[in-house]
Structures are given as C-alpha cells and as structure tokens.
Amino acid sequence: MTDAPPPLESTEPAGTVAELLLARAEDDGRGLLFGERSWTWREVVAESARRGARATMLRQAGPFHIGVLLDNVPDYLFWLGGAALCGATVVGINPTRRGEELARDIRFADCQLVVTDESGSALLEGLDLGLDPGRILRIDGDNAGEPGPGEPGPGKPDPGEADAAGAGAVAATELLLLLFTSGTTGSPKAVRCTQGRLASIAGRAAVGYGFRREDICYCPMPLFHGNAIMALWAPALSVGATVALTRRFSASGFLSDVRRYGATRFTYVGKALAYVLATEVGADDGDNPLREGFGTEASSPDRAAFEKRFGCRLVEGYGSSEGGAVLNVTPETPAGSLGLPVPGDDIVICRSGTTVECPAAFFDGAGRLLNADDAIGEIVNRGSARSFEGYYRNEDGNAERVHDGWYFTGDLGYRDADGFFYFAGRGDDWLRVDSENFAAGPVERIVERHRDFAAVAVYAVADPRSGDQVMAAVELKGEGRFDPEGFARFLSEQSDMGTKWAPRFIRVMAELPLTATGKITKGSLRRAAWVCEDPVYWSPERGAARYRRLTEADRARLAGEFESYGRSALLPQ
User: For the chain, which terminus, N or C, has the lower number of CB atoms within 10 Å?
Assistant: First the structure.
C-alpha cells in the first residue's frame, strides 16, 4: 500500500504538467510558501523556467534524468517544474538510503545531473555515482541556482519565455517522474509517471477531493514520495491553490506550521498522525484553519482522535504510485477497512502468485480474523492494468505486476463477506516502516556481516498502529551466543544502514527454516513473529537500537496495543 491518490473518474482530457504550469505563467495568486517567504504562481513558473533552461544547457546524450536529493525546499518544486517545462525527468532520491545503496539508485536511474545541497553532498561524498563532480549541482553553492548565459532571469516571464525552456515540445507521453519504491527481490524499483498521467491525476484529484483556489495545501510528507506530488502538489497546481512547504515532517511543529501558513488541507502517510497525536494536548488545538487531510495507512483510532482533537475531516484511500488498483473509504466502510473498489475496477484477493480467488474472511466477536490462512492473499485488479506505466529498466518487475491483463499489487489483504477490503501487509521481502518502502535484501546483506551469524532472514511484522516493523531471525555460528549490546554497536558502525532499517526484533535460532532446495523460507517466521519458543530480543524505543530480552509481559503489552488500535487481526497466530 503506497501513498498516491486514487484516480477518480473524469472526462476531462489529461493534457500535460507543462501545460498546467503555463496556465499559471501570468497568475499573480500565491503559489508557494516556505518559512517567511512566498512566491506567486507567476514567479514559480519563472523559477521553474530558469531551472529548465539550465538543465537544457547542461544536457548530455542519454536519458534526460535529473536526480533531486533535497528536503522539502522550494528548489525541489522549481526543479520539478523546470523538468516538466523542458521535457526532463525528475528522479526522486530518497535521503534515508545510505552508502552504496544510495549510489546505486542514482546510477540505476541514469541521472546525468544531481541537484542537492550541503547535507546531500555529505551523503554522496566518496560514492561512485558515475558522474563528473561538475554534474552535482548544489542549490546552496556556486553552480546551481544562478542562471547561465541565455537563461531567463527573475522577473515576470510571458508564456513565450517558458516555451523557450522547451515546454512547447513536451508530449503527454514524456516521462516526468521516476519514484523509487521497492520490490520483493531486494532491488529498488523506479515507478514511471508520464506528464499525461500526472496531469490526469491532478485534475481528477482536484475535483474528487474538492481542492479550491483559496486552499493553502500544507506539505509535510517528503517530495520524493508519490503522496506529496500526486495528492497535493499536482492538484494544487491544477486549480491554482497555494502550496506550503516544511523542510521535513515535524510532529511538534505541525500545528504551528498549520496556523502560520493558514493551511486548509494537508497529506499524511501511516503513523504521521500518531506522532502528531503524541504531542502535548492544548486546550485550543481545535482552533486552526484545517478543513481536510488526505492520506493512507493511519489506524482508525488515530483518525478518530485526530478529527476530534483538531476538528479536521480526514479522507483515507488505498492507491499506489504505480496506479494499478484503488480502494476508497465510503460512509459504510467498517473500522479498519480500506473500503471498496472504485467504479470500473474488479479487485479480488488471490492466492499469492495465482489467479485463484480466496474465500471471504470471517471474524470472532472481538474482531480477530479467524481464517487468516485461507482468507489472506494478494490484492489483485483483474479489471484492467492500463494505468500502470511500468518500472524503469525492470522488465521482471513489470511482468510481476501485470500478466494476462491483471494487475498484481504485491500487497496482502483480505475481504469480508460484504466486499470490504482490509490490508494485511506485504510479501515476505517487502517492508514499509514509518511510510518508507524498502526491501529485505539490502538489510539482510548488512546484518549478515556480523561475525557471529551463520545465516540471516529479514522480514516484516505488523506494527501495532500502521505499516510494518523490521524483524530478523539469525542463526549463530557454532556455540556462539547473541550479544544484544554488541549487536547494537555493530549496527551503529554500518555506514549504509538506512535510517528505517534497523531490526526492531531479533529471533535467535539454532537453524533457520529451509525449503527442499536449501533456500531460507520466511512464511513460518513471519506468521510466528515474536510469539515463539526461541529467544527474542527487541528494541522497545523507536529509533534507538537498544536490545533486551522480550518477556511475556512485553508480549501482552504488544497485544494490548494491537487491540487498542483495531489491528488485532494482524497479531501473530
């Protein structure tokens, strides 16, 4: 489950994002807010045209791909707009990745330029990016922000000046975005999104979710995610609403940002709501301008508590950057459900890797899923796969998603007797922690470096509130024993360990389960999770790798958390 808005129905032609920008070239309404600064849409288009002209001047042979490694700063949107105007492709680089994994993303996406800043440059230092140093553009340095010879300068450009950056030649089929996700094989996947698809999403989302020109759209989610671009920036652009940026998500700064900007809507993913709710409650929290929030994967209790505390309506949806399957919450949707398919989609639950439909789920009085083994399967759209534009340089991934005209999401779910869908996690090798997607393979390769481990399996287990947590099963060498403090030190020394990758649970086993061909199998590990006879160590504090032995009291506490957030069905069986 990812974070793009569902493609609501519309009869309007898609057009291009370049055309949406050109329509704002003489618009003096507020287009962008960041801190104490503001830009009109006219100025946003001018800045975008400058970036597009600069990119065109620096263009080399090969794919016209520009990697952007930045926080949510205005330059990110200027380069996105510039790429749209000149026919380039923005590659959203995830700054939570590290070392060779980060370098691999940039090389794989054929980036011929990388736009970054001081902090991003520090992440790239010493890495083999396949680029000359002069191809790394620093927005806070001497080689990025200033216009070169022949580039438009600041001011009030007319549409012709924007056309000079190449917008007139841009087609709806031009690739505009590569958004990294992760597949179950361990190799990152880059989702293709063309100018036409994003423009179409912009128009339909703006109508379907009631975007207004007077809206101020607060963007706390990172711009390398589909959520921020597809569910906020693009529909705001289509109606001329205002986009308000914050450098990165801050739970403690959320309400003050909303009030300072006068934000009327925002987007979220996963546990972002939970983090905001964990801040100190104020008697005047409901005194704010928010009207609506759109997001995915928040628990039902968190949504209800947020709406009550902040007086803001929340709309949940199930969709993906790939665009292959959509589920929408309706007024009749049961608590914890993803909702129903949009009209025209024929979505079912199938046995993993097959077209055999799973039976309906049934529950006990407490809402616990009773037939998980039979009811849980892959969420599949057998109506159409036409909106999926494919992955970049990944034919195996394309074939995994689409065959015989059916779209296979890779997400696990189940459906009740009334047709409502529920999310049940991912395949064994796909994890989503704090709204970040990543594969188990790279994490395994890091943990395997530990000198005491003979074998390692990394897999997702459910989080009590939303998404996944990372669990690892390790097989020790010889007569070795697990040293929790030593393992924490080991993790801290791994320079390529992603910020979300550290295992929350460690299961210590005499032998890992194997298939008949000698491959590690994770199905039984994931089902058991931390409820097993083997010693399990865990790190109770989020974000701090400090391990201790998991006790029965800890297991009971975890069960209580799952129950309180309506996710008891995902507890280990």
Answer: C
DSSP 169-215: G--TTSEEEEEEEE-TTSSEEEEEEEHHHHHHHHHHHHHHTT--TT-
What global pTM score does this model have? 0.80
* Phi/psi of residue 235, nearest 5 degrees: -65, -35
Residue 291: CB atoms within 10 Å = 16
Give the pLDDT of the chain (573 residues) as one tens digit per residue: 445 554 444 434 459 999 999 999 999 999 999 999 999 999 999 999 999 999 999 999 999 999 999 999 999 999 999 999 999 999 999 988 889 989 999 999 999 999 999 999 999 999 999 999 999 999 997 554 444 433 334 444 444 454 544 555 899 999 999 999 754 334 568 999 999 999 999 998 899 889 999 999 999 999 998 999 999 999 999 999 999 999 999 999 999 999 999 999 999 987 789 889 989 999 999 999 999 999 987 877 788 899 999 999 998 888 888 988 888 888 888 877 888 998 778 999 998 778 899 999 988 776 667 787 788 889 999 976 778 999 999 998 899 899 888 999 988 889 999 999 988 766 657 788 887 767 787 788 889 889 899 889 999 999 998 889 999 999 998 778 899 999 999 999 988 788 889 999 999 999 898 764 456 888 889 999 999 999 999 998 776 778 999 999 999 999 999 989 888 888 886
d(CA 348, CA 345): 10
10 Å CB burial of residue 383 (0-12, 13-18, 19+) is middle
| Domain covering 433-570 assigned CATH 1.10.10.10 in the classification | no
Topology annotation, domain 337-426: Luciferase; domain 3 (2.30.38)
Residue 323, phi-psi category: left (phi > 0), alpha (psi -120 to 50), beta (remainder): left
Q: Per CATH, which fold does 17-318 belong to?
A: Rossmann fold (3.40.50)
Tally Cβ neighbours within 10 Å of residue 10: 15
Taking the CB of residue 222, how many other CB atoms lie within 10 A of it? 23
> What ranges do the domains of the chain cover?
17-318, 337-426, 433-570
